[in-house]
């Protein structure tokens, strides 16, 4: 029964992602946004909701100590999974499309987009890492530093959004596949007075489907992990983030296969920027932010993976599927570290 529910939840997530991708492209066109803003704000923040909700529930509704630990693990697990496993999945998708002759091995990106996203992420996540290292010492109370860092991270995310919204629109309604809701009622959103209502309904409904699917997936993963004796902290560090990062992975795979690389990579890197701001700020404000060594290791690995892609964009001026696979391979290193140095419980 548990395996069946897992498969059903996965199917719901996949179907909802397809509908969400279709709707968010139309929403970006209607709002006159650039492709970069559509991928890095609308798609990224929308699909980041499931993994953002989990640490909030853990911190505010969980038991004092265990809730904080699970919350911190979930907060840090999200950007780590995006920087490693999501890149690995994207690289595999592009490799598959290349092997079938459906696309080139190099990503076609809008100039400066990925570079800006990764620069914001690395700068903001480095601040979170420094705060985590300060939390390991006992010579002074670092809570004031954490509060200041949280405020700064939120301000930087506002600056990031402002920079994206300044860009001119480069998306046209004619380039978007037919809206699914429009197909259902045989109405074109481009010509109908209710076009925006149709688009918003489809985006909201598909996002709800993603959240519901992710919720069932996480619940069943928790039950299965408990049945096989997996520690709760391993769940917080590893299993739950994998499940809740599925939306970003599948949305990007769809766009990679269609050759919409700016949307695909922006969906991942934009989510990384978001995850390094709002969720991290919640952790800084409402937990002690005294991180386990394995948590620190995950942050260092996430920064290394992001830097490799940044180096490829900035210096090599090209990103191939091999670049994504190389960043994704660091996920294996983390698994090894997790098995050798498991987080303490209690």
Question: Which structural traits does this protein have?
Answer:
single chain; 346 residues; mainly alpha
Secondary-structure map:
Elements: H1 2-30, H2 35-47, H3 49-61, H4 64-83, H5 85-99, H6 113-134, H7 143-165, H8 180-185, H9 195-227, H10 232-244, H11 246-257, H12 261-275, H13 278-286, H14 293-316, H15 321-340
Helix pairs in contact: 1-2, 1-9, 1-11, 2-12, 3-4, 3-13, 4-10, 4-12, 4-13, 4-14, 5-11, 5-15, 6-7, 6-12, 6-14, 7-13, 9-10, 11-12, 14-15
Describe the largest sheet: none
In DSSP terms (H or I, runs of 4 or more residues), the helix count works out at 15
Report the mean per-residue pLDDT as an integer.
Answer: 82
Say how many strands there are. Answer: 0
Element order: H for helix, E for strand: HHHHHHHHHHHHHHH
The rounded Rg comes to: 20 Å
Distance between the termini: 32 Å
Query: Uncertain regions: pLDDT < 50 for 5+ in a row?
Result: none
Percent helix:
over 70%
- Strand share of the residues? under 5%
Helix/strand-derived category reads mainly alpha
Shape: globular
